[in-house]
Predict the 3D structure of the following.
Amino acid sequence: PDTVRLLSSAQVITSVGNVVKELLENSVDAGATSLDIKMENYGLDRIEVRDNGLGIQACDTAVMAVRHYTSKISCHDDLERLDTYGFRGEALGSICAVAEVSITTKTVGEDISTQYSLDVTGKVVLQKPSHLGQGTTVTVLKLFKNLPVRRQYYTNAKKCKEELKKVQDLLMAYAIVKPDLRLTLAHNKVVMWQKTRAADLRGALLATLGSGVVAHLLPCQHLQEQPQISLDGFFPKPGADYLSTSSSSHDKTFIFINNRPVQQKDIMKLLRQSYTAQYPSESNRNRYPVLVLQITLPPSSIDVNLTPDKTQVLLHNKEAVLVALEALLVSLYGFRSP
Ligand code: ADP
Ligand code: MG
């Protein structure tokens, strides 16, 4: 059973970025508006995520990290109206299988916080009073200590830097989609990135991309019924051709489906085509525009259960989404896909 647990957990928790993503999503699900993320040695020695969310009820703490426990859905129908990032109860249990985890939490009704140390199966093995305020702090030590090959991967300095960049890109995406979230990221005790609270999407963009970029973006919207699709976001103003990210990188093309940052090949392709159609020079061929696209669909028309990290989303009506996006691109730029 130990080996099975390790192998299946290693599939859910594939990287440092993955751990940060799961912990961050749990904090947002718990209503947090403030998040402090600290990493040491690129997250291999320590990842700590502190939030000011609701905390974990004392009655749930015994099972919180046991695999497949979730407080977020109680019946299958809940999946059809999902409004949380998590629902499978897999993250905490899986992290416990590949690292040393402790969780400190306090709900509003409690006077002091409690720190829980968890074993490889996610069971609480030690509990003691602690001094932290309202919310939850998850500490992950010695990530992949029992997966030498994966740990080996991170001995390469270049790989480590890439992973850190991925974490920053990830935080940027959540910073945009959750305007009222305050975020900090520290690596080896140095603050690398921070974002203050904002009132709306535009404010969030100012706080993450800066006013220089936002000045060249245009708010836009497209609503469609039958099937119900709502698109909104900020696109480059026609003529803002320098607003592209470096060649073949799409790290500033933010696409969200029902608030989830996603990688959607067909949507990316259409956006890139519209960009290169406007600026057909050779050097623009593989560029992606800086933009934010939020796609909102009825929860029942998407399936986020495709991959453990939920960044691939299966759309029941992908064609309709592409048609709606094209309509938006036509109205903005007069662009029609070839
Ligand atoms: P899921 O998010 O799919 O429910 P997880 O393994 O990520 O599964 O988390 C298990 C449970 O632990 C959650 O359902 C939630 O009840 C609790 N939990 C985890 N992190 C937090 C947090 N930061 N604040 C409050 N509750 C949390
Ligand atoms: Mg979760």
